[in-house]
Amino acid sequence: MIAYFYKIVKVLHDGSFVSSYVPGKACCTYTIGQITRAPEWLAKEGYHLTVFDDKHIALRWLYGSLTLANTCMAVLLAKADVTDIAARPARSINFEFLKSGVFPKIMSSDTDLSDEEWPNGTVFVRQLEVMDLLYKLDDSALRAFESFKL
Fold it and tell me: Most buried by CB count within 10 Å: which residue of 35, 73, 81, 102?
């Protein structure tokens, strides 16, 4: 059985789509019509691709994070087999570990994991296929957003 999800991505200057906030060696590239998987070093530890299960939640999260992103962002429609839905890890990994491409060996230190919880509606999938570009916030939309900030 197929389920549909919403993936928030960063749009690069060449028009390609990459992970929205995951840096360095953890970053994934997303292409319409192709299957994407998390890097093997993360997947073997149970950290897979993050998607949202509701378009409205994805859009709210996208707008809420615009000031952090300071870049062109988009929402992609993706599909995954329900058998590819994975358990959600209890906590997210610190960005420094994600950038380095090394999973922390001992998960007891506060520096190993972020204290941030996963946003509402977050689902982990082992692999997904990007179906279509649903919504893109380009540079002009970001400038308009910036002009309304107090």
Answer: 73
